[in-house]
UniProtKB/TrEMBL annotation:
The keyword Membrane applies. The chain crosses the membrane at residues 18-40, 46-69, 76-97, 103-120, 129-148, 168-189, 201-231, 237-258, 356-377, 384-405, 411-431. Its main location: membrane. It is a multi-pass membrane protein. Pfam families: Wzy_C (PF04932). GO terms for molecular function: ligase activity. It is found in: Membrane. The keyword Metal-binding does not apply. This is O-antigen ligase domain-containing protein. It comes from the Bacteria. Residues 199-360 form the O-antigen ligase-related domain.
Length: 446
């Protein structure tokens, strides 16, 4: 891996190296403590905003900003940010902090520009990032199958932030599922080997998410299937499947049921969730929440695509759940909703059809960019690079899937991860192309 990802030395600054370390620490905090970690700091500067501001300073000091716009996804992101600013600034006087909070679904895209500059300035940092993720994978898979059910069982006893009434640890199943998906991808693509015990813990962690969240289940299954289709050879696939089959068989034979919050961790519950995704689960709670989402999304489409909010949307700052008439208490967060359980519908409702089209074009262009990078790497025999592009693509896709069924990109816990992966993908593609041009003495083939 190190030989494949080695690249010519470039100028490096201590500030960029320190920032990369700071970024990794913050991302780790979001994965292990969730929303509880996000409240470190003082409003309006919480840890995510501090990370963003310091990153922008590092980006300006490091230089190379032109590289952020040298790809179509980067250019479209810049245009989308301008559009969102235009739909946020007019509402600052009316909604103040709420307008800024709602806009981060796109404004956190500045992290993508930061990571492109930091990694492209010194490509060795990309290798360090990959190695650091390997260490994170071992840590996460070792402790999260204990931390997550412990959080669900002991929520009332966890200390809270006194000013915000938020537990110091607050984990959502979709967020946990995304990272289990990322680790499974990392392992199956050959970047890190796990022992039998760690593989068993990975299976148990995935099972917990599958029993708790339909969106989280899709966010795991779909990216793994795509990755295995793109890179079918995996030395750890057979051991993982054998361990999974053994655990499921034993759990079914012993009729194991573990009460975790409002759901039971059991084979039957997992099967029920899978059935509810495909159609009707004949369960009032599951079908009811699905119908509630569909009704809200239909209303958003009606007042934007077919209504008065076609061009501008309702803007950033207004509570969409209140204004649209779909307000409920979010059981996971124990607070009122602000946005629909779908990031794409949030963009449509707040920024109108033009903003939505920019959003879709940006997502599609990034996918095309990554697939093209994968094909280029495979054509040149750069297997590690090819696997890296598949990992980044499918990990990012896992977040997109989860954000299609939950309020995910609207907060820093997955929002920052989403944009960091977005920027890392662009940087990796640019670095790899530069490496090929260096080897061939000219332009890389299209």
């Amino acid at each position: 891996m190190s030989a494949v990802l080695s690249t010519p030395k470039r100028s490096r600054t201590r500030a960029a190296d320190l920032y990369l370390g700071f970024l990794m620490v913050v991302l780790l905090g979001y994965t292990l403590a969730g929303r509880g970690f996000a409240y470190i700091g003082m409003p309006p500067l919480f840890i995510g905003e501090i990370l963003l501001l310091t990153g922008l300073l590092v980006m300006l000091r490091t230089g190379g900003i032109v590289a952020t716009l040298s790809s179509l996804p980067g250019t479209l992101l810049a245009i989308l940010i301008v559009w969102v600013l235009a739909r946020t600034i007019p509402f600052l006087g009316l909604y103040s902090f709420d307008a800024l909070r709602d806009s981060v679904i796109v404004m956190y895209g500045l992290f993508a520009f930061i990571i492109v500059v930091v990694l492209y300035d010194e490509p060795e940092r990309l290798r360090r990032l990959v190695l650091a993720y390997g260490s994170f994978a071992v840590l996460f898979v070792s402790i999260m199958p204990i931390v997550y059910p412990g959080y669900q069982l002991l929520q009332s006893q966890i200390p809270i932030w006194p000013r915000y009434n938020v537990p110091l640890i607050s984990l959502r199943p979709g967020e946990v599922g995304v990272h289990f998906a990322g680790i499974a991808l990392f392992v199956l693509l050959g970047f890190r080997r796990l022992g039998p015990v760690q593989l068993a813990l990975l299976v148990v962690g995935i099972a917990m998410v599958a029993a708790h969240s339909r969106g989280g289940t899709l966010a795991i299954v779909v990216p793994l299937c795509i990755a295995l289709a793109m890179v079918p050879r995996s030395r750890q696939l057979a051991p993982l499947l054998m361990i999974a089959a053994a655990i499921v068989t034993i759990a079914a034979l012993l009729n194991v049921e573990i009460e975790v919050s409002s759901r039971k961790l059991s084979v039957d519950q997992i099967a029920t969730n899978l059935m509810s995704i495909a159609g009707s689960a004949e369960t009032a709670g599951l079908d009811g929440t699905k119908q509630w989402r569909i009704m809200w999304w239909d209303k958003i489409v009606n007042y934007t695509v077919h209504g008065d909010y076609f061009w501008n949307g309702k803007g950033f700052g207004i509570n969409l759940a209140d204004d649209d008439g779909f307000q409920v208490i979010d059981e996971e967060e124990a607070q009122v909703l602000r946005s629909p359980h779908n990031a794409h519908m949030t963009i449509l409702a707040r920024s109108g059809v033009p903003g939505f089209l920019l959003w879709v074009a940006m997502l599609g262009s990034w996918v095309a960019f990554m697939v093209r990078a994968f094909l280029l790497a495979r054509r040149h025999g750069d297997r590690a690079w090819a696997r890296l592009f598949v990992f980044l693509l499918c990990y990012w896709l896992s977040i997109v899937i989860n954000a299609s069924f939950d309020v995910a990109l609207e907060g820093p816990m997955l929002g920052i991860w989403f944009w960091v992966l977005f920027g890392t993908g662009i940087a990796a593609g640019l670095i790899h192309r530069t490496e090929i041009e260096g080897r061939t003495g000219g332009r890389a083939p299209p």
